[in-house]
Amino acid sequence: MNLELIPLLIIALLMISAGGADVETTEFVIEGDHEMTEHRGALIVGDATVTVPPDEAVSGPVYVIGGEFRVQGTVDGDVTQLSGSLVVEDGATIGGELQHIGGSEVLSDGAVITERTTVVFESAEPGPIAAYTPFVLTTLMLALVGALLSRKREPLLDNVGAATQDHPLISLTVGALLSVTFLSVFVFMAFTLILLPVSILGLLIGLLTIAYGIIALGYLAGQRLDTPRVGLATGLGVVAIMVLLQVIGVIPILGDLIAGGLLLTGLGAVVLTYFGLQEFEPVSLPE
Amino acid sequence: MKFFEFVREGQWIPITGYLIYVSALTAGYYYNLTFVQLGLTDLGTRGIGLSPGDVSMAMAILALLTLVAAVASGVLMDRRGWSTDLYVKFRLLFLVVFVQLLLTIAAPHVSTVEQFVLWVIVCSMALGVGIPVTFSFMLDFVPVRDRGYVAAIVAGSSFFVAALYPIEWRIDEFSLVMSATMVPAVLVLAVLSVRRFRFVDRLASQHERDAFGTGRFCRPTPVRTASFAFWGPVLLMFGVFFIDSLGFLRIIETPLYIYTSWQSPDLSVRLFIAVLHVVGAFAAGIIYTNFDRNWLFLWVFGLFAFTHLLYVFHVQFGAGDTPPLVLPMFYVLAVSFYTTLNFALWPDLSTPETIGTHTALGVGIAGWLATFSSTALALYSEGIGLSLLSHLTYVNALALLFVVALPVLLYVHRMVELARGGTTP
Q1: Does any CB of chain B come closer than 8 Å to the CB of residue A228?
Q2: DSSP letters of B125-182?
Q3: How big is chain B by its Cα radius of gyration, in Å?
Q4: Which candidate in B286, B288, B296 is best for mutational testing of the A interface (most A CBs within 10 A)?
Q5: Is the peptide bond before B14 cis (omega within 30 degrees of 0)?
Q6: Closest chain B residue by Cα to residue A30
Q7: What is the pLDDT of residue B243?
Q8: Do B211 and A287 touch (CB under 8 A)?
Q9: DSSP A65
Q10: Minimal Cα distance from A47: which residue of B?
């Protein structure tokens, strides 16, 4: 599954939960080409092409978060489009509200749509300043936290940094395993709806852990500056790492692999050292 | 890794040992994984026309006889000192591979129940003797430091090939290819059995070196056969193998799941699975080498429980849809993890004096008995018409039971130690 779908999936599940739909009838179509007939309950369209054929009806609500949703027959409930593509053909009927938030849509004049709303976001094509503001703000915040942490609790970053530097392969392996497993577990939890808050909390903790890993990488980079002002060095190091993560994406495939590898190594090192509370030492084996 | 040290220093004889071990174990595991476990099902049901229930009986017989043969030959190897005599082990392996070659050639010609039973009996004898012989090679060829990585290479390679080839589990298709690839191995082993070579002499004495002989968990105190330190892992590994085969066989027999399994007609799916086996094994190798083995057990059971939960969830709610690749992805990770652990664990729980017995008991009980008895049970459940959902629910329950059992077992063990006056953690 496309990882970018996960936040949209969580939003869709939150909306389903708020709408009081039955979890057992919610279906998430993740891939392939499907024709929907007689589906009762909520339907989430992911990286798939889903068609409601003529003379067929699904109850809805339907959430389009990716792929393509093609209506030739009838959707009795609401249709909410967050992303992907929506095609409503001649003779098709949407009995509930069609809410367009994002993605592309093609609505035929011959289709019957009971109610239609569009959420418009301002400045669809942001200028360079607006585009880079979130990145700059995130970087500044991480640099500030890194500077404070290195001044007040330097041993924490020292332990994480040492694990990253001395045991990169182990850190990367642990980081990769944890991210794959926990990401899937959290998505799975979200599907139960009951555990949706736990899932969101888990994802937030995961993001914070990754941020901590970036700060530790920044601390390591800052040490290269050879300055006694550890706070400043860490802050600058964090900026350097963030810029590197941003710039390296220019290199096709390899750039993303390096960026992903760095983030996972940082994550693994944070976990291995119990968030820096303990040095990581592999088990001792005979030489 | 010691391997890179040997390469830097140009020590080619120890490097030859690595190559022999990886080749022998990869070929052996691939053979047993495909030709015996899945080929036997095909031979019994399609070739002879037996019911799944009867084939499950044959599987159970194979499992029990293999265990008996493994333990008998393992104990004999230790008592006679054969475990540390590489030439004797080469001779025994020659006999095993030669018998397996004859069985492979004979398989497509087996047409009656009597011949089938005889084939199963001879097959189990060969397998049984082969277990302590091949698994104890680690003591001669692989230093303790590198065992996790070498085990990962064996597990990853054999699964990689098994996932990519073949598409059909038909014993007659296998037979010809397998026979052709086994003949060179038989010839090499025949030469090594009758002649002495200087490089083999050097390899044969490697177990006396500190880096090779005594297993990781036997330092400073050797693990006794009648101890919790040995039977605890046996029980846990039995659980892992049993649960895996119990779920796996039913899954690959269900048409919907074939498309995202080893038997998928889509090459890209099989390639995905094959590559993931290698990645999973490599990750397991790193964890085995750098952490306490309990962490690996925890990962294995955690992955298994989650995988089965995913399958049960999909069977219940996603019926009719092709399952997403995340399902086989977790299955493959779990399988690669425990297979890597299985290759490295038993030699590391042994000394040169106990390796025959320990590998025979470990692999025999945790590997073969568990795999074949659960395969038999899976065939039986299919035979009596138990639904896939009910079947996987049982598997799920077992997986979750073991997830809970591991920390409880460790905790109780620590309690017993404390009650006896022990203080070290």
Answers
A1: no
A2: HHHHHHHHHHHTHHHHHS-GGGHHHHHHHHHHHHHHHHHHS-SS--HHHHHHHHHHHH
A3: 21
A4: B286
A5: no
A6: B324
A7: 80
A8: yes
A9: -
A10: B324
Does the model's ipTM exceed the 0.95 cut?
Answer: no
Quick one: A259 exposed, middle or buried, by C-beta within 10 A (0-12, 13-18, 19+)? middle
Buried b (16+ CB within 10 A) or exposed e, B120-143: bebbbbbbbbbbbbbbbbbbbbbb
Query: Which among A173, A181, A286 has CB closest to B145?
Result: A286
The answer to whether the beta carbons of residues A74 and A55 sit under 8 Å apart is no
At which residue do the structure tokens 């130690």 appear?
B417
Query: In chain A, which residues have pLDDT < 70?
Result: 1-4, 20-25, 38-40, 120-126
Say how far apart CA A143 and CA B38 lie, in whole Å: 57
Three-state SS at B370: helix
Residue of chain B whose Cα is closest to the Cα of A287: B211
Which of B120-134, B209-223, B323-337 is the least confident region? B323-337
> Is residue B16 within 8 Å of residue B199, measured between CB atoms?
yes
Q: Give the strand order in the sheet containing A85-88.
A: A33-35, A49-52, A68-71, A85-88, A104-107
B338 versus B41: the higher-pLDDT residue is B338
Q: CB-hemisphere CA count at 13 Å for B135?
A: 39
- Contacts for B400 with CB less than 8 Å, ≥ 6 apart: B305
pLDDT at B150 (0 to 100) = 96
The per-residue pLDDT for A177 is: 93
Q: Which amino acid is at B318?
A: G
Mean pLDDT, chain B, rounded, equals: 85
Top-confidence range, A83-92, B129-138, B255-264, B293-302: B129-138
Predicted pLDDT at A168: 96
Q: What's the rounded mean pLDDT across residues B293-320? A: 76
Does residue B424 surpass a pLDDT of 60? Answer: no
Query: What would the pLDDT profile of B44-98 be if each residue is shown by its tens digit?
Result: 888 888 887 788 788 788 888 999 999 999 999 999 999 999 999 999 999 999 9
Find where tokens 């086996």 sit.
B277
Q: How many CA atoms lie within 13 A of B302 on its CB side?
A: 14
In the numeric block, the tokens 């083999």 are attached to B200
- The size of chain B, in residues, is 425
User: In the numeric block, which tokens belong to residue B162?
Assistant: 């098994």
CB atoms < 10 A from the CB of B311, how many?
26
Q: For residues A5, A8, A10 and A15, what is the CA-based torsion angle, rounded to 10 degrees?
A: -150
Q: What is the pTM of this model?
A: 0.82
Cβ neighbour number for residue B268 with a 10 Å cutoff: 9
Q: Which residue has the tokens 């298994």?
A: B304
